[in-house]
Amino acid sequence: MTAEPLVVCEDVARTFGTGPAAVTAVRDSRCSVHSGARIAIAGPSGSGKSTLLHLMAGMEQPTRGSVSWPALGARTRDIGVVFQSPSLVPTLDVGENAGLPLVIAGVEEPELAQRVAEALALVGVDDLAAKLPEEISGGQAQRVAVARVLAQRPRLLLADEPTGQLDRAAGQRLLDALLDATEHLGAALVVTSHDRAVIERLDTHWTMHEGTLRTTESRAVTS
To answer: Residues 187, 156: contact at Cβ < 8 Å?
Structure first.
């Protein structure tokens, strides 16, 4: 028996604005993501990749079509999103930044400390817990942003151009951390990118072209 998918997009479209100035970012696209998936969505800037991820996360509402989360129900809090910019709070140290969503959600000690420590260790920055954002590198800051999401223990992790502001080596290290962490958590991973070195590390390759999603299955080269 096939498990229910984590997210299903049925003929979704998303248009911004009205009249002659309207821009359609996603056009009549359909897809589903199951547990354990490792998916790369390729395409140039402006092709609709980010908007599709926002629809999957429930951050945007489709203009047409529907998005549902069969295996999650209404629990879109089980979806974590990593953005291109880490957006750390400059006055909080690394550990406090990683734990901030848990504080907001009302998670109490000692569970909060345990989950933060685990998340920081998963991405290899546990030795930076007491550092301020200004004291770490851009690659380290992006790992902290990933840890902030992992501490919430998502079942679906959506990463929007997570290596876009990093050099090749730092980007590959971040992708290593994403793959290892989602494997540890048993979470599905969807990554948008136009970097072939990132795309080829994931098992399934989709593409966006002028707002239309094309889904294909292909095995990635992981060496």
So the answer is: yes
